[in-house]
Amino acid sequence: MLNFFPKKHDSKASRTGPLLAWHNLGQPQWTPRRYDQLAEQGYRKNVVAHRCISLIAQLVASIPLTLYDKEKQEIEAHELLSLLHKPNPQHDGKAFLEKLTAHYLIAGNVYIEAVGAQDHFPPRELYCLRPDRMKIVPGPRGLPLAYEYSVNNQIARWGVDQINGRSDILHLKNFHPTDDWYGLAPLEAALLAIDQHNAASQWNMAMLNNGARPSGALVYAPKEGPGTLTEDQVQRLKNELEENYQSSRNTGRPLLLEGGLDWKPLSLSPQEMDWLKGRDMASRDIALAFGVPPQLIGVPDAQTYANYQEARLALYEDTILPLAYRLMGALGAWLTDLFHEELTLTIDADAIAALTARRDTLWEKLRRADFLTLNEKRAALGYSALPEGDQIMPHAADKN
Predict the structure, then answer these.
(1) pLDDT at site 271
(2) What is the rounded CA–CA span in Å between residue 113 and residue 130?
């Protein structure tokens, strides 16, 4: 009789894992899109994308971190906190987290190396590696078999435990609907709008170099003689126009015309004027891809929220906090495993000044909630319970 039920010792392994790796087992898989192209066109050459990425990375890195023990008691001093405060000789804690977040937004993948981690010793240093230099080697169980980092034909390799997935490399990746090994770059989702914005900027620069005016036409209509110019005359006119009348330094310079020549300026069409406005539309699309309210980065006519404070609050609630919890949760789980302790690393949202108004409103609501015990109120705020906090405390107004 056939047994259709898996044995207990086989139940842990995923039945789909081997299907992901059978056709490329042991062969390094490159990232599907060039990281350097995304960084060049999106981060270095586009001011809107650069501002969005820098703003998010700086705000995420500025949120204080909190460490708790297994009893949910806050730990003020610990080797893990010291490591995050100074991960390596080149970066302090904020610079490290800012780099980590920027890599995540540009490439959709983050690779962190733990240096010095052994069976009974925690890591001594942490390094954030460039995503375009890292390759994943698929393993037989659907987990990476190894990570390979290539620089100038030199390869460093880190293995991965095929049972529990432990490694000295932490791979953080954004969700990708069609790739099993690499994450989707948020910058890639905005790439079409970035290309449009860059093209509009180049067009504006070309207009500026042409005297900030639309082009025109030299019309040759002599009253007598041949009706066309010779090739030498045409070439001489082109050279004079390029040397004496084009570029921004020659703006406003009078055009000297000989007999039979007339200058006819060409005005911008309505389609061209609408295309210029499309630059602002592309800016809003780029900000939308990163979850940044456009009015925070100076996009004209993009006042979606009533004021700057509301826009900044929306940025924190919709973008900064979810991303910070995602990144710090994965980083904390990986580090606490390397430290061999039951610890919880999370962000301290109460220390964010932009959330003060929201926090004050929550505190006021809980203060007036007479049907909740003190411990229930403390739990709603993220605090531990008190020995005598399970009684409902009457409201101050009720005492009178």
Answers:
(1) 55
(2) 11
